[in-house]
From TrEMBL:
GO terms for molecular function: DNA binding; DNA-binding transcription factor activity. Transmembrane segments: none annotated. The lineage of its organism: Bacteria, Bacillati, Chloroflexota, Ktedonobacteria, Ktedonobacterales. It comes from Ktedonosporobacter rubrisoli. One of its GO terms (cellular component) is protein-DNA complex. PANTHER family: HTH-TYPE TRANSCRIPTIONAL REGULATOR CYNR, TRANSCRIPTIONAL DUAL REGULATOR HCAR-RELATED. This is LysR family transcriptional regulator.
Amino acid sequence: MIARRNMYSKDIELRHLRYFVAVAEELHFSRAAEKLQIAQPPLSQQIRQLEHMLGVRLFERNYHTVTLTAAGEVFLAEARHVLDEMEQALARMQDAKQGLVGRLNIGYFQSAEVTDAIIPAILQLYRQRFPTVEIQLRATNLQEQWQAIQAQEIQLGFAACSSDLPKDLDMLVIERIPLVVVCAPEHPLASQPAIALRSLINEAFIFCHRQASHFFYDRIVQLCGFSPHITQEVADLRMLLGLVAANMGISIVPASAVSMRDQGVIYRPLANLHEADIIETLLVWRRADSSPLVQNFLTATREVLEQRNKSVASIRE
């Protein structure tokens, strides 16, 4: 077997390839030099240098003509390929620099009733602006989400709690949702225009499992000021509302739950509503993260919020 000589040289640069391709396409050194906007002598010198580094003649030259050798024909195809690949790589790099391509990993709080109303609108606008960015959603609880952001496993997270937010994380409040009492239409509470928490001390409560939404669970217990009599624990809000409709108990839920079910249940506001009776939906990210992907998502989020605020203001007027 004939050993194949390795003609690669680390000294070969992209300019050598560009000069070679220009001469190969023009088959004339003066015209190639004019095309490259350089003088002919340096061009001829660079081609001789390239041939020396490769250890092969790329052109046959005489006083009247310039032709490619067999090796030159092969090298032309490869040189064009390398230059095309580099051009594409530079274009992809510029797209990445502007946040036009890449992957955005977003966590969301598993208590989906808190964020269902806002996530789709934000994602829709972002996808319209940046269709080539891959978006991966990941369900997490709060602690997992914050740890994942800090570890840069995800870049952003939709959450429902601002207390104890690590100092290296930043946040944007995207929604403030009041808590309401939900009960069956035949339940005595349904006749009340607003309900005081202290009046619920003897009621049978239905909650989502604490492990699925420990923050929300603990928040309700804290608000009540007593240990609720929990008769049922379910996996998700839809099941919770179904059991409430069956008059198996009552619950306290974010007002956004009405978008999931408004038949067979009655929602009543809390009497003397305080700031503590409101759930905030947040968008969280690393304070030091200046990547275009994250910044573009934040811009889209703020635009959605601004549009929503304008819509709410027009309705009130």
